[in-house]
Write a structure and sequence with these properties.
The protein has 239 residues and is α/β, with parallel strands linked by helices. The protein has a single domain, classed as Rossmann fold (3-Layer(aba) Sandwich). Helices cover 32% and strands 23% of the residues. Helix 2 packs parallel to helix 3 and helix 3 crosses helix 6.
């Protein structure tokens, strides 16, 4: 699982995760060094190709490859501390993945991480950012039904799982400015007319249909957003 907590407690989250890996895998290969910021466990190792895999998490869940696969390194520390240490050590990665994490960061940590990530990338390196879309159809419906004051407001469920902020599809350019990187692609994953619990209850066997509908309707209507960034606008590393 990629992200600050294991969300695979329902079929809807599991299907979103599977689709996300399909989009990420083409950017991986067996000669690339990959960094996952906020990994929860090491199941990502089953889904992507890598030469070296660095996993960073405040507290890991169950990990099946620890002390078994020497290509995988585990860092049980915060993102800010890891990034600062890596800059000092001049660590470089071909691919950095951060999904299901940005919504868990306070503003100061978010701006630090996004402002420094480019310094950890090799030339032409790729950064992949993923987050739930707060203007997805199910949240807009929640506003209409007075369950939320506005789409990006934190619900009780958001607070329970540690969200500090919610972002919509327009935030991709906002993140790009912090990164100083070029957005080369953004992807919407799964049309979600209902919350995950109700999607599971009524549509568990038809989730592939909602993946395809999401592709037809586009990023604004989807429940999850994946953004691919590359390189600096001015090709000069930030200090």
């Amino acid at each position: 699982m990629v992200g600050y907590r294991n969300l695979l407690d329902n079929k809807t989250e599991e299907r979103i995760q599977d689709e996300m890996y399909k989009e990420i895998k083409p950017f991986t290969s067996f000669n690339k060094s990959v960094l996952v910021l906020g990994s929860f466990d090491d199941s990502v190792a089953d889904e992507i190709e890598f030469k070296e895999l660095y996993l960073v998490e405040m507290k890991f869940g169950d990990c099946k490859y620890k002390d078994k696969d020497k290509r995988i390194q585990y860092f049980e520390i915060g993102l800010v501390e890891f990034i600062a240490r890596s800059i000092e050590l001049n660590r470089k990665f071909d691919l950095i993945i951060m999904t299901g994490v940005i919504e868990h960061l306070v503003h100061q940590d978010k701006t630090y991480c996004l402002g420094k990530i480019g310094r950890l990338l090799t030339e032409n390196g790729i950064f992949i950012l993923g987050y739930p879309n707060c203007s997805s159809t199910n949240r807009l419906l929640g506003v209409e039904m007075n369950h939320l004051p506005y789409a990006c407001a934190l619900s009780s469920g958001d607070r329970e799982i540690g969200h500090y902020y919610m972002y919509d599809w327009r935030a991709t350019s906002h993140f790009g400015m912090y990164l100083g990187m070029k957005e080369i692609r953004k992807i919407g994953i799964m049309f979600k007319p209902l919350p995950n619990s109700l999607m599971d209850k009524y549509f568990k066997k038809e989730l592939d249909v909602f993946i395809e509908i999401g592709k037809e309707l586009g990023i604004k209507a989807c429940g999850y957003i994946l953004v691919i960034y590359q390189g600096f606008y001015n090709n000069v590393n930030r200090k």
